[in-house]
Amino acid sequence: MRHHPLLSRALLILICICFSFSFTTADEKTDKVDKLFATWDSTVSPGAALAIIKDGKIIYERGYGMADLEHSIAITPETVFRIGSVSKQFTASCIAILSIKGKISLDDNIRKYLQELPDYKIPITINHLIHHTSGLRDYLSLEDLRGKSETDFYTPQDTMELLTKQKTLNFSPGEQFLYSNTGYFLLGVIVQRVSGQTLNEFAIEHIFQHLDMRHTHYQDDHTTIVKNRAQGYAPTKSGYRIDMTTLDHVGDGGVFTTVEDLYLWDQDFYNNKLGKKLIDILQKRGCLNNGKIITYAFGLDVDEYRGLKRVHHSGGFAGFNSYILRFPEQNFSVICLSNLSTFNPTNLSTNVADIYLENQFTKAKPLKKKIEGKPLKLAPPELDANTGIYHDKKDQRWFVIRAEEGELAVETMGNKFKLLPVSKTLFVNKKSDMLLEFFPKTQDAKFYSGQREPLNLEKSAPYIKPNLKQLTIYTGDYYSDELLTTYKITLKDGKLIFAHKNAPKSLLISVAPNTFTAGWWTIKFIRNNGKKISGFQLGAGRAARIKFQKK
């Protein structure tokens, strides 16, 4: 068959134009991505590795910043990172594999495998651990209360012993969702006791080897040499410091991997090399006692973002942060691993998705219109109308809000930040995507931070704060037999403080009768029948209702 020369030439020109257009479009997108990460694209900064996946292929990957500042080693897609809680989906997978093999039931009482744990009368099941509905106190919070940070050393056996001393739960199993590292740490112990293998050995045999994830393992021995490992860092006033951990705990975290290995894992949600049954189980969301379906599945959050189904999870520990984000119906994923404690891969990965899927979203960006409002000046009475003390009952967080120089200064969980008014009832911090919206009729407010669900804040009734003489009655030594720890409360410069190495450095701020906050803690003092202070109950987010008796 003969081809018309002019027609062939026109066709060739059309193909070249189309190719050029698609190339330019792709180039424009990657340029936008690089701009998002430009702050860390440096030879003097830690940074991140990024992989963008579309239709089964990595369409863009690169490293930003340095894996090792001391030895001038740059981050590449082959760099190995600690991924924190992104590890949880692998632990959940090991448990799911055991259930598929008939070795365990997800409805088993965990004391079948963990006899040393207290009997809380109401059974805690494996499902409760998986979906963070067990009520068990978070072991990292408990260790923190004992004065142990992620940079201190304590063994998994020490943690098991600590858990055996916990007399009560945060709440009755199945009543609510509260993220707890304890649940996944215990799931790792269950895997070992049932299979006779360490969690790392089991995961390598049943997951990592099958998917050819050659650079992935659970780091259950901190002395192990890991090739191409990134150092973890935290910022200082003059630069950076090394921020690593010597903890050998696995289950809730502990996986070391690369973006390229996680790409292989991501693709199994389509290819099902490990079996479709497993992949289906991993995306099964939890259910509370009242029948409410929560977004948390098996180490994964399954929800929606801008109208599209999203499967994702973040992680952060010591000097590392990570995020894996999947839009399964668009066959699109973003994987971002960082070696900087202040890095926010969740927001950055979401911004990457916004670039590539901008024409497929059916809803606008959350809070976009509100945050983009122009700052305005409010008269002092208008600012003061929103000041006061607010309480989030769900997470037991207190917010102390004051007016300062035309802005609102907010103190919560030991942090202080300022918000600019964009209306009489709307205050924002655009750099961190934080927003406070007030509702004058109900005296309530909503606090938004990044991609998280908003906190519902209730304004506390005004009360007369204790004077110096009244503060004196709270001083003394207090002991907890659950933490085996004593806290000393004393007065300094007319204010209550903790005078103990294990306690936070911050002041005790009075927020309600007999109730104070200190950093991210809430302390509620208890009086006996004679109305004297007999102790206090301490709440620390994921570890609540811990009792201290006055000596």
Report on this model:
With 551 residues, this protein is an alpha+beta fold. The chain contains 13 helices and 29 strands. The strands form 6 sheets. Strands 14-15-16-17-18-19-20-21 form an 8-stranded antiparallel β-barrel. β19 and β20 form a beta hairpin. The N terminus is likely disordered.
Whole-number count of domains: 3
Number of helices: 13
Count every beta strand, where a strand is a DSSP E run of 2 or more residues.
Answer: 29
Q: Any idea what the shape is?
A: globular
Amount of beta strand: 25-35%
- CATH superfamily annotation of the largest domain: DD-peptidase/beta-lactamase superfamily
Quick recap:
This protein is an alpha+beta fold and 551 residues long.
Write the layout of secondary structure elements.
Elements: H1 5-36, E1 48-54, E2 57-64, E3 66-68, E4 73-74, E5 81-82, H2 88-100, H3 126-130, H4 139-145, H5 156-164, H6 181-195, H7 199-208, E6 217-218, E7 233-235, E8 240-242, E9 255-257, H8 259-271, H9 276-282, E10 301-305, E11 308-317, E12 320-327, E13 332-338, H10 345-356, H11 368-371, H12 380-384, E14 388-392, E15 397-404, E16 407-412, E17 415-421, E18 426-429, E19 434-439, E20 444-449, E21 455-459, H13 468-472, E22 476-480, E23 485-492, E24 495-498, E25 509-512, E26 515-518, E27 521-527, E28 533-539, E29 546-550
Antiparallel strand pairs: 1-2, 1-13, 3-4, 5-9, 6-9, 7-8, 10-11, 11-12, 12-13, 14-15, 14-21, 15-16, 16-17, 17-18, 18-19, 19-20, 20-21, 22-23, 22-29, 23-24, 25-26, 26-27, 27-28, 28-29
Helix pairs in contact: 1-10, 2-6, 2-7, 2-9
